[in-house]
Amino acid sequence: xxxxxxxxxxxxxxxxxxxxxxxxxxxxxxxxxxxxxxxxxxxxxxxxxxxxxxxxxxxxxxxxxxxxxxxxxxxxxxxxxxx
Length: 83
Known about the structure:
By secondary structure, the chain is an all-alpha fold. It has helices spanning 6-19, 33-45, 56-67, 72-81. 19% of the residues are buried.
């Protein structure tokens, strides 16, 4: 992504996740509508600590949400902070 600010990057990811069903193409990342909203809220809440926002981060978070539905936030937070 070549967007300058994290907010622009987030807006693009939001568009892909919600409008284009970006995560639906892979069974490992196909999360429910409610999970998508929860993930996007989580990313937005942690945007200030995010080192760099790219298209792989929502995929990774979706995988963790499916594998660890009750403990995904800690892992996702660490992943958002990683470069």
